[in-house]
Amino acid sequence: MFRKETPRLDIVLYTSGVDPHWKDELGRLYLTDEGLYQRDLFVLQTVIKRGIPVATVIGGGYFRDIDQLVRRHSIIHRAASKT
């Protein structure tokens, strides 16, 4: 992900979209909840271990069931609590 010649970053802005979920009407990556969690955890751990501040925002998600949408958007917070 990062190469030795990568310039020093001041901050990483990460959009933690949930449209890649397999139940999303517009998504096509077919990730599960666990897949979204592992993706978010990987991104956060990779950036944080390099000492780079990271800010996340939620995005995407085209679920008819609002409870499912909220649950999927909360995955980034669960991943952040593990870093």
UniProtKB/TrEMBL annotation:
Histone deacetylase domain segment(s): 10-64
Xref: InterPro entries: His_deacetylse_dom (IPR023801), His_deacetylse_dom_sf (IPR037138), Ureohydrolase_dom_sf (IPR023696)
Superkingdom of the organism of origin: Eukaryota
Protein name per its UniProtKB record: Uncharacterized protein LOC113114779
The organism of origin for this protein: Carassius auratus
The encoding gene: LOC113114779
